[in-house]
Give the backbone structure.
Amino acid sequence: MKNLKVRNHRLIAAAAIEAAEAQHTVVPGEKLAAAVVARLAREVAALDEAIAETGALIECCSATTHTPDRLAGVAGPAPASKDSGRISGNMRRPRRYCRRLLRVFYMSAQVAARSCPVSKAFYERKRAEKKAHNRPSHLARSIASGCGDR
């Protein structure tokens, strides 16, 4: 039922079991059909749980294979690798990046620059180096890369 995108398939399966058990008229093969429906409903519920567990495992594995630098490259504040063949170290600012994720990093950098003493010191050090400070982009890049020392 889930493959057919049936909404509330668990509730429908439970209602089918309840309806099969609550029948008052006797039909030849009723008990056999009720047993088959009940068994199929339990299998559907078990498959749904197995699919959810498999999906969680896949999400966990895919989340751990990416590095913080890759996340920063996808978000936009850090350069992404444009290596090919024997060329290595060719870093460029990505043209396509997730604007929402970039906004999250900039907002977290602005809040951190005001409230966290370590981030505030990092931001003030970058301002002293005459870096552009209209947006704390260096702080956003360090937050996105997961750099703990800033």
Summary: The helical segments are 9-21, 30-65, 68-75, 99-115, 117-128, 137-145. Residues 9-65 form one domain.
